[in-house]
Amino acid sequence: MSNANLPTQGGATALAERGASRQYLTFTLGGELFAMPIEQIREIIEFGGMTEIPLMPGFLRGVINMRGAVVPVIDLAVRFGRERTEIARRTCIVIIELEQEGQMLLLGVLVDAVNEVLTVEPGQVEPRPAFGARIRAEFIEGMINLDQRFVIALDIRLVLSVDELATLIGMAAETGATAGE
């Protein structure tokens, strides 16, 4: 890709001139194509079942044991306000490593299928749309332009905001406790 098409404002041109591309893992969720930067991805595992936890919000599908560590699994479709992910032959769990208050946390993300790793040049990433996306705008880092089609690049730190998820889990626990009275 030629650098002539790149915007001259901000750091995009400087990044392109240094050849700074970024890699994204693409995956399918509910028939749509999404991408997330590979920097936070620790590994991808085949879905082999999980332990469900009662009284948790729908987006927290359960936990898995990963070499002795308990890893919560988030159903990304439910997190986006959609129906639960149906478990199928290609269903995978993408293990994400996030830093929270100086320590590394592991979270699993349930997706329909993992597709490929793309190397994306800065000029291929368009700003997120102000409207029209079927997920919250702040979850979108940008739109990757791939030959007349777009892939939604997620800002995985916001999608999996540990503080927001903890608040939602706390609210679900309170609702469950109130319902049981």
TrEMBL record:
Organism ancestry: Bacteria, Pseudomonadati, Pseudomonadota, Betaproteobacteria, Neisseriales
InterPro entries membership: CheW, CheW-like_dom_sf, CheW-lke_dom
Protein name: Chemotaxis protein CheW
SMART domains per record: CheW
Pfam families reported for this sequence: CheW
Gene3D superfamilies: CheA-289, Domain 4, SH3 Domains
Domain CheW-like intervals: 21-165
